[in-house]
Amino acid sequence: MERSRLIAKLAVRTFLIFLLAALSAVIINQGKLQHVGYINLYQWRMIFPVLLIAGFITLLILCTVKKYRVADLNWLLVINTVTLMAYGVAISLRIAQLMH
């Protein structure tokens, strides 16, 4: 149980560090991002990222309330966080491709 607690906390902290780095990159490169143009966002395509983010927030709150003592919730949080990081990398690569 200690291993799942440690890995869950590590995954959440790593995600938050990546999120801060991405936000700082957006702030620094605001001028370049204006030339990217309009990205077409369809309503049904956005349901999956919204569910992923809502699941992350829900699992983070549940794990924090239960103080990371439930191993199953910890592992679900780890899987959700890794999936969310992979989605973030995919978005970053897409924006980088559009910038060049």
Report on the architecture of this protein:
The protein has 100 residues and is mainly α. It has one domain. The chain has four helices and no strands. It has helices at 2-28, 30-33, 47-65, 71-99. The longest helix is centred in the C-terminal third of the chain and has 29 residues, at 71-99. The model has no long low-confidence stretch (mean pLDDT 89). Keywords: Membrane, Transmembrane, Transmembrane helix.
Q: Can you give me a brief rundown of this structure?
A:
With 100 residues, the protein is mostly helical.
Question: Helix share of residues?
Answer: over 70%
Report the β-strand fraction as a percent range.
under 5%
| Strand tally | 0
Profile the largest sheet: none
Radius of gyration: 16 Å
What is the H/E string? Answer: HHHH
Tally the helices.
Answer: 4
Our measurement of the CA-to-CA distance between the termini, rounded to an integer number of angstroms, reads 46 Å
What key attributes describe this structure?
100 residues; mainly alpha; 0% strand; elongated
Per-chain topology:
Elements lengths: L1 H27 L1 H4 L13 H19 L5 H29 L1
Helix pairs in contact: 1-4, 3-4
